[in-house]
Amino acid sequence: MLDLFPSPKTAHEDIPAVARQFLQQSYETLHAPDAAAVMAGSAVDAMLKEKGYRDGSLYIRIDQAVADHLLTEAMGEWAHEVRLGSNRPRHADEDRPHVSHDEAVQSVEFAEALANFLFVLIAKIERGIQNAREAVPDE
């Protein structure tokens, strides 16, 4: 059978469930940029909570993750941009209530990259180490 459309994007199974669902919803709502931006911001929020950053506002938690070197300075700056983009439609910002499609795509891409960095890559490394330890050496 010939596929005429690409398969829909699916959030990786190594991402914790709450963050994975928000990320998945961000993929599925890219046709509605405000919704995608809010979901991307929620995914970032859930990822930081999964890593133990639960106290204070998302602003404070992003800064703390940078201070703790969980995130690089640049990742922290981008996380703040995603946070701000998520806030605009959620709080019906009077000057700029909506995000553009490009802004939403960038927010979703960051959330996906962060998930890959914090969870997917770590899980792959852990599986690789485990597989290497379990490998039978050639005799």
Structural overview:
It is a single chain. With 139 residues, the chain is mainly alpha-helical. The protein is 66% helix and 0% strand. It contains 5 helices and no strands. It has helices at residues 17-28, 33-50, 58-67, 73-90, 101-134. Helix 2 runs parallel beside helix 5 (101-134). The longest helix is centred in the C-terminal third of the chain and has 34 residues, at 101-134. It starts with 16 loop residues before the first helix and ends in a 5-residue tail after the last helix.
In short:
The chain has 139 residues and is mainly alpha-helical.
Describe the structure using short key phrases.
single chain, 5 helices, flat, about 140 residues
Question: Which helices and strands, and how do they pair?
Answer:
Layout: H1 17-28, H2 33-50, H3 58-67, H4 73-90, H5 101-134
Taking the sheet with the most strands, its summary is: none
Structural class: mainly alpha
Number of helical runs? 5
CA radius of gyration: 17 Å
Low-confidence residue ranges: none
Instruction: Compute the number of strand runs.
Output: 0
Spell the H/E element sequence: HHHHH
| Approximate helicity band | 55-70%
Which band does the percent of strand residues land in?
A: under 5%
Averaging pLDDT over every residue, what do you get? 93
Q: Give the oligomeric state of the chains in this entry, treating copies of one chain as homo and distinct chains as hetero.
A: single chain
Q: Which geometry do the CA atoms define?
A: flat
Distance N to C terminus: 46 Å
